[in-house]
Amino acid sequence: MTARPSALRAAVEQTIVGQRTVVEGMLVALIANGHVLLEGPPGVAKTLAARSLAQAIGGTFKRIQFTPDLLPSDIVGTRIFDQRTGGFSTVTGPIFANIVLADEINRSPAKVQSALLEGMQERQATIGPDTLPFPEPFIVLATMNPLDDDGTYALPLAQRDRFAINLYVDYPSRDEEIAILERFGAGDVHPVRDAVTLDDIREWKHEADRVHLEPRLRAYIVDMIRATRDSDGTRGRYVERGASPRAALILAQLAKARAVFDGRSYVVPDDIRSLAVPALRHRVGFTYRVTSERVNVEELLESFITQVPAP
Amino acid sequence: MLRIALLASVIVLAVGRASAQSLPDLTITALSITSDRTAAPEGEAFHLRIHVHTKQRGAQLSSLVLPDVVNLTILGDEKRTAPAGDGTDYVETLTVAGVSPGEATVSPAYIDARDPSRSDKPFRFSSNRLRFRITAATASGTQSIADAAMHAVRIALGVLIAVIALVTLGFLIVRARSLAGKRKTYVTLPQARPVAKPVDHRPEVRDATLVLASTRTRPAATQVRAALFALAGARHNETLASLLKRIPNEQRALRAALRAAERAAFVDESQLQGAIDDLLDAVRAMVFT
């Protein structure tokens, strides 16, 4: 019998206090076969969330700490000479795992980022003459600290587009912080292992493919994406480039995954509305005024989205 | 008046024929000594101004005899000759200083000349005399310190008054702008109208449900959903999750009907008839609750 996504969420939440939106977002991305970009200040459990998810699904987990001296071969792998056989053998890199945590992805130069991002797109890597597929499921959880940007290499818009969803991990509430002290004050908390299997996740993906999306909801998604492109008024002032058609495809995919997560075989407007901002935040190019006037990006996107009539 | 007085003071002198031969031909109409001071501290420089006016143009006044000064020392001498409308103006400025406290005198300056307007007779034209009071240097120093102090006080007071005036002016400008800004915020409120009577959406729900029961199509289900959203007081563009947050849990029948309507509006075609049955049951349950 196939376990439900709620079981996976419960397993992750045994370790992670609060951050329900982030946990749900990661699970939805997992079902949608998409990658996650986690942004937030240090110490808000970004890495712990990724590790908890990996252990709960019983898959392999690898962490890559991005540094300025990292090389593409440190991620993808390389070929080494084997003295016993007298030939070269392939050694795969940490990207060959079910869940890959790319910690502080913006600390490495562009060529290293490209090695990871190409793998994310192709879901395979070529090392010498061998082209090796990544294990299934394969999800990259990349973290970025938006506050401390000294000595970093910002991800261009085109590369950020590879991530299905951009989740902002904020500081926990007061009650949540008290709960964190209670939970972690007694010693190490070990994440729940193997709450679901890799087969369960594959089954959820198949379910997501079969989820019904009403034509009116397709139009709703398209109108929402187009709302970020019109250059009138506020949009013209703050938005340089609107979201691409790929954003519409990803948003539809994520909405279907959320329907599976909620145990439905059809998408409702709430699926789209709740995922619109995380799916668009990193895909819309904002003008310098957003930074200079300290405009809240989420509120800005919300203002565009709520102008689209809900079906 | 000065000219008349000076002319009145001209003393006509007879001079010897031999000396008369070398006298210049001058008609002097003014010869005076003036000063801007009547008293001066010991050692402090001031000016004596000797003014001569002749009717002759380009006249040379080398024969002017400077006055004798008592208790004064001459520090400098500056001469200036300028053509005037009816002759020549000659001004000689002597810079002098008091030697010791007491009285200082300046004797008349004079010119010996033959006056063509008086049959070329030799005349001595003399100026007035002057007297000065020379004060002690110590008193003068004290005075100057006091003067300097008073001067400084006056400057400070002037600056203070100017600053106060500027601050007051600035305050008045800011105040005026503030009042002007406040005036801008006054808005004319629209005339109050009676609160509209809440619209009863139950007939809409009833009619839409009757249509759904007879047609059993998705558009009819969508109409029931819209009527139920209106009945629940949904705001513009509000989705179900947001609406359910505002509906109390006690209104279970309405919540259930809204969920059933959402399903019937968006479910797959193969499950539509079952969803419509559920929606009709939920609306009936809501009506009979």
Outline the fold blueprint:
The complex is a heterodimer of chains A (311) and B (289).
Chain A: H1 5-13, H2 20-31, E1 36-39, H3 46-56, E2 61-65, H4 72-76, E3 77-82, E4 87-92, E5 99-103, H5 110-122, E6 124-127, E7 130-133, E8 139-144, H6 157-160, E9 165-168, H7 174-185, H8 198-210, H9 215-227, H10 233-238, E10 239-241, H11 245-261, H12 269-280, E11 285-286, H13 288-292, H14 297-305
Chain B: H1 2-8, H2 17-21, E1 28-35, E2 39-41, E3 45-54, E4 69-70, E5 72-84, E6 87-98, E7 102-106, E8 110-115, E9 121-126, E10 130-135, H3 137-185, H4 202-215, H5 218-231, H6 240-246, H7 252-266, H8 272-288
Parallel strand pairs in B: 2-10
Antiparallel strand pairs in B: 1-3, 3-6, 4-7, 5-6, 7-10, 8-9
Helix pairs in contact in B: 4-5, 5-7, 7-8
Number of helices of chain B: 8
- Give the overall shape of chain A, derived from the CA principal axes: globular
Structural class of chain B, by secondary structure, is alpha+beta
Strand content of chain B: 15-25%
Rg of chain A to the nearest angstrom? 20 Å
- Unreliable stretches of chain A (pLDDT < 50, length at least 5) are none
- Stated plainly, the CATH topology of the largest domain in chain A is called Rossmann fold
CATH architecture of the largest domain in chain A: 3-Layer(aba) Sandwich
Report mean pLDDT of chain B, rounded to a whole number: 82
Helix content estimate of chain A: 40-55%
Named at the architecture level, the CATH assignment of the domain at 21-135 in chain B is Sandwich
Share of β-strand residues of chain A:
15-25%
Number of domains of chain A: 2
Mind summarizing the main beta sheet of chain B? 4 strands, antiparallel
How many β strands of chain A by DSSP? Answer: 11
CATH top level of the domain at 21-135 in chain B? Mainly Beta
Q: What's the SSE pattern of chain A?
A: HHEHEHEEEHEEEHEHHHHEHHEHH
Distance between the termini of chain B: 124 Å
Structural class determined from secondary elements of chain A: alpha/beta
